[in-house]
Design brief:
The chain is of the alpha/beta class. The chain folds into two domains: about 130 residues, NAD(P)-binding Rossmann-like Domain (Rossmann fold, 3-Layer(aba) Sandwich), CATH 3.40.50; about 180 residues, 3-Layer(aba) Sandwich (Rossmann fold), CATH 3.40.50.720. The strands form two sheets. Strands 8-7-6-9-10-11-12 form a seven-stranded parallel beta sheet. It has a six-stranded mixed beta sheet with strand order 2-1-3-4-5-13, sandwiched between helices. Helix 1 links the parallel strand 1 and strand 2. The longest helix is centred in the last third of the chain and has 20 residues.
Length: about 325
């Protein structure tokens, strides 16, 4: 039971689950290209891959003819070629909810930074300035928070936002009514945009959702709105967002993700005065790393030993598994 982890590290609790089941673990360097993962998968004849950093392509799967399961260390699966896995009968799993609180807290932190203009005030103080006569700090209570996606992260963000006194609305393709305990359900994205002072993205990146925020949709937001993205960079047309920021139509963007990661050194979001950019770390907290590693390890062990993988973790069922695919998180 050889397991390849496309990262140099896995939380000790996850390693313990795998080793207790008799798995043989192999690691590679951080953020390896698919070619390196394919090489390592072939060398060790991987039966399982824990996909933590970097893409898992069809070539990676073909390099490991005995591959049975790809376990995502996280909720998103856009870095795994799902069609290739489906064609080869390889089980693909994810860890929904494992980092929900951490990512929701990060989204709220970005909202605080922008609404209170903390980066701007810090720059002013560092430049020997102080409070100006017309300076005002905005209230968070009463702002309209719009959420795209009501999976575990969206639901937790709604709960925190409501607790801060924001009016929370949301749109989701798959969530049932129970997911909307802390938000008003809106029927479509266009309505949500028109009614949001802050828009926060918590949906999966698919061909349908790619660049869902573009020149047309950004224009639907009220002037002075804020954008938060802790999901995937590809949800936003970055050129359109840059133009909306420069024009002042969008007052600020709090981004934990970008289309290309890391963004090139000259990427305008790195130094834009209206952008708070963090390096895709929203879910990288001590507690969430342990939970994601443990959940992914449990999926691997179950798949390799004939156990039961929790249905909500299955993205693509194996050819030998009768479980149904779960919809993309939103």
């Amino acid at each position: 039971m050889t397991v390849l982890i496309n990262s140099p590290h896995l939380a000790a609790e996850g390693v313990a689950v795998l080793e207790a089941a008799g798995c043989d673990l192999h690691f590679v360097e951080a953020f390896p290209p698919p070619e390196r993962v394919a090489e390592a998968a072939a060398e060790v004849d991987a039966a399982a891959i824990i996909a933590r950093q970097g893409r898992i392509t069809a070539a990676v799967m073909d390099a490991a003819p005995n591959l049975r399961v790809i376990a995502r260390h996280g909720a998103g699966t856009d870095e795994v070629d799902l069609e290739a896995a489906r064609a080869r009968g390889v089980l693909v799993t994810r860890t929904p909810g494992a980092n929900a609180r951490a990512v929701a807290e990060h989204a709220i932190a970005l909202i605080f930074l922008m609404v209170k203009d903390l980066p701007g005030m810090q720059r002013r103080v560092a430049a020997a300035g102080w409070r100006e006569g017309d300076m005002q700090v905005r209230d968070i209570a009463g702002l309209r928070l719009g959420l795209v996606g009501m999976g575990p992260i969206g639901q937790e963000t709604a709960r925190l936002g409501q607790g801060l006194g924001m009016t929370v609305s949301a749109v989701s393709r798959h969530a049932d009514d129970m997911a909307f305990r802390h938000a008003r359900r809106v029927s479509n994205l266009e309505t949500l945009l028109r009614e949001s002072d802050i828009l926060s993205l918590h949906t999966a990146l698919t061909e349908e959702s790619r660049e869902m925020l573009n020149a047309r949709t950004l224009a639907l937001l009220p002037r002075g709105s804020l954008i938060v993205n802790t999901a995937r960079g590809g949800l936003i047309d970055e050129s359109a967002l840059l133009a909306a920021l420069d024009s002042g139509h969008i007052a600020g963007a709090g981004l934990d993700v970008t289309t290309s990661e890391p963004p090139p050194p000259d990427h305008p979001f790195r130094r834009h005065p209206s952008v708070v950019l963090t390096p895709h770390v929203a879910g990288v907290t001590a507690l969430s790393m342990v939970q994601m590693a443990t959940d992914a390890a449990e999926c691997v062990v179950a798949a390799l030993t004939g156990g039961i993988v929790p249905p909500d973790r299955i993205v693509v069922p194996s050819r030998l598994d009768g479980s149904r695919e779960q919809p993309s998180p939103s």
